[in-house]
Here is the input.
Amino acid sequence: MLFDYATVLVFIALGAVTVALMLGISRLLAPSAPSAMKASTYECGEIPYGSSWVQFNIRFYVVALIFIIFDVEVALLYPWAVVFQRLGLLAFVEAFIFIVILLAGLAYLWKEGDLEWVRSLQEPPARKGAK
Amino acid sequence: MESLALSLVKSFPALSAAPMWAVSLALMVTAGVVVLVFALTFEGVGSLVLRKVAGDIQARIGPNRVGPNGILQFLADGVKLVLKEDLIPEKADRFLFKLAPYLVFVGSFAAFVVVPFGVGLSPADLNIGVYYVMAVTSLVVIGVMLAGWASNNKWALLGGMRAAAQIVSYEIPVGMALIPAVLVAGSLSLQDIVRSQGGLLGLFGWNLFHNPFTFFSFILYFTAAQAETNQTPFDLPEAESELVSGYNVEYSGIRFGLFFLAEFGDMFIVAALATACFLGGWNVPFFNAALLPPLWGNLLSLGVFLAKAFLMVLVMMWVRWTLPRLRVDQLMRMSWKYLVPLTFVNLLGVSLWLLLFRGKGIPQMIASVFG
Here is the structure.
């Protein structure tokens, strides 16, 4: 068992060494002629305007929150799946209740509009000919 | 692999002088280097095949200058990337900017540890295999987000945030769609999952044919995984027409190349997981590999596994060049409103089937009718 995890560690170390090695070779071979223009931020050839570390869309944050809830639940279902065939009906009923609660939560999010990417504060005006 | 180390010491008495941990370490590093060479070769050749397939599908020629029919193009690209100047923007967060490629590449490469390449041919057969892959590939998200943030570039920031939102959104369906394979096998180890699909001529035992729900979860998995690896139709993070190149726009030279390599590594991991969990892994159809002498059996299973995985990679490329790109709101709707509820219901379907038919699949029932 420990042997297997030692292999994982070796792989991780090997991956990191590979990256370092590639960067090292590149440093030896590649030209280096830095200039102020090259080191400036790329903005389609325009002169960069301000910093990029500014506020961005809050939707990303909401998605991350929803993700955490569901990811925890996926993590919980994996051990359940391993023992499912041994436990039988009881395990099924438990998972059923669990999943129904989660689906109710998803339905709530859906109704509240948190699953919409583009969310305006007012209702859009009804278009002509729309259902 | 532990037993391999022991048998190695037994068959070569000279080794018994060396301490056990040294033999083991040498063995692990050898396995690591072999897999690393395989991964890098796959990533290089994969980039060439991707462009050849693109050329064929779009009625163009594709790369054809370097070597016969352009087959050395990937080497030329690699050399070019190494020889390019490595630029770090002045305003970037230098430490995070340098850290990001490490996370992305290591996260993608570490997933190769548990891939069941053949009978007994996993670098390490972790008893939490599937779970481990899910966990370690999440490193890639962190790397991508760091790359986007550290660049201090508006395109990179937007691309990185989009990529993170997309990858985490599709991680839920990917995780849920793999659970049916775990349910059927009753184990998280990828070798066990492959072994559980061995019966019935090595073809009808596949989870793909087990019951209608497992068939459906393969389709769900494949769709979600296509999105998780940022392939078209889900390649919004690097939508070149609006975000120029997304999170890696400020990266140049080999630092950019590392993101590129990791992307192809992820592609192989997705294909390998699909193969191991649904397409019978290394089980050879219509042939019992155990009949061959040990080494030949291992090699045959290795070949069969790679053939299936490469076929899956080709299908991914085919999808990639056939479908148009989604819009960002369609992308989110696809995950949260379709794939997530469907995988939940599908999971209940699989577990109900296993409960009602005592773990038997349709092919098994048909086989038992005919004796």
Remarks:
- Residues 20-57 of chain B form the longest helix (38 residues).
- Chain B is about 65% helix and 0% strand.
